[in-house]
Amino acid sequence: MARPVWSGSLTFGLVTLPVRMYTATDSHTIHFHQLQRGTSDRIRHQRVNERTGEEVSADDIVKAFDAGDEYVLVEPEELDDIAPGRSKALEISGFVDLDEVEPIFFDRTYYLGPKGKEYAKVYALLHRALDRSGKAGIATFVMRNREYLVAVKAEDDLLALHTLHWADEVRDPHEEVADLPGKPKITDRELKTAGRLIDALTTDWDPEEYHDTYQESVRKLIAAKRKGETVEKAEQAPESTNVIDLMDALNASLEKTGGKRKSRGKGGTRRSELDRCSKAELYELATEAHVRGRSSMNRADLIKALSA
Fold first, then answer.
1. Which of 15, 242, 301, 303 is deepest in the core (most CB within 10 A)?
2. β partners of residue 256
3. Is residue 125 situated within a structural domain?
4. Closest C-alpha among 122, 118, 109, 121 to residue 152
5. How far is it, in rounded angstroms, from Cα 124 to Cα 221?
6. Cα–Cα distance between 159 and 131 in angstroms, integer?
């Protein structure tokens, strides 16, 4: 069983729920040691006094802020003393619709669990209420001398906590990204073909289908080098599509995918997909599916026939 990375009290209104917070994700990145070339000697980073060159123990190190003409020393306990709720309170200040929180604000995910079986009912009540409402509780708390803005939401059978970026941490894309396209002229034919390509490549979200192929290649490289073997180099990145050849590239892509939507495998998902189509798009799909009597059907009839 994993150890909690933080524990304290989650509050909403006058209700208090003691909780523990656990890391929700893990990294499978391969980590390398540093060696001096030509030897097996490890290179290690040490805390060294830059004036004396001597190593300093962690207990003898204090935090200091550079105020320009002097350093202002700050002890760990002093940071704890000024932390809201002394770093033990997770207070929900309000609830918002999840759709209102833009993806760019989400950072890391943690699991929240009740701090004991006696708090199971309060925990379950908050979970079900959030699940039914489709809302998230917005709160702040302090962990490891840093204050976090977070969203608490229901996921499956537990509460999850997502740390959020503060508003002033999100950069303005128009100041950061060069050569944004503005509004170049795009023809209806190009837009329709691109839409067909997106539809043809649409599939159900299944995270198990995706793998970190780069890490797999790194492992193969390490295994091959241990045996004194070599590995095949990866393919070069494709060249950029020339604007003149854009339609050719789109049509070739459609031809490669078969030019048809992938089967979603779920009736409800298929019906939802059809509901978003215009009558012209539905008629085109009906033509591809050889639906009889399609010329006399209205939009609802086309959806019904294609769903079947």
1. 303
2. none
3. yes
4. 109
5. 48
6. 10
Residue with token string 């740390």? 163
In a domain, 196, yes or no: no
Q: Is residue 44 in some structural domain?
A: no
pLDDT digits (tens, 9 = 90+) for 238-266: 676 666 677 888 888 888 776 444 444 44
Contacts from 131-136 at CB under 8 Å and sequence distance 24+?
133/95, 134/97, 134/98, 135/95, 135/96, 135/97, 135/98, 136/95, 136/96, 136/98, 136/101, 136/162
Number of domains composing the chain: 1
Any domain includes 117 = yes
CATH code of the domain containing 121: 2.40.290.10
3-state SS track over the chain = CCCCCEEEEEEECCEEEEEEEEECCCCCCCCCCCECCCCCCECCCCCECCCCCCECCHHHCCEEEECCCCEEEECHHHHHHHCHHHHCEEEEEEEEEHHHCCHHHEEEEEEEEECCHHHHHHHHHHHHHHHHHCEEEEEEEEECCEEEEEEEEEECCEEEEEEECCHHHCCCHHHHCCCCCCCCCCCHHHHHHHHHHHHHCCCCCCHHHCCCHHHHHHHHHHHHHHCCCCCCCCCCCCCCCCHHHHHHHHHHHHHHHCCCCCCCCCHHHHHHHHHCCCHHHHHHHHHHCCCCCHHHCCHHHHHHHHHC
Domain that holds residue 85: 6-25+81-169
Segment 68-124, tens digit of pLDDT: 989 999 887 787 777 655 568 898 999 999 889 999 999 999 999 999 999 999 999
The torsion region of residue 176 among left (phi > 0), alpha (psi -120 to 50) and beta comes to alpha
Which residues of the chain are under the pLDDT cut of 70?
Answer: 83-87, 237-238, 240-244, 258-272, 295
- The residue behind tokens 């998230």 is 136
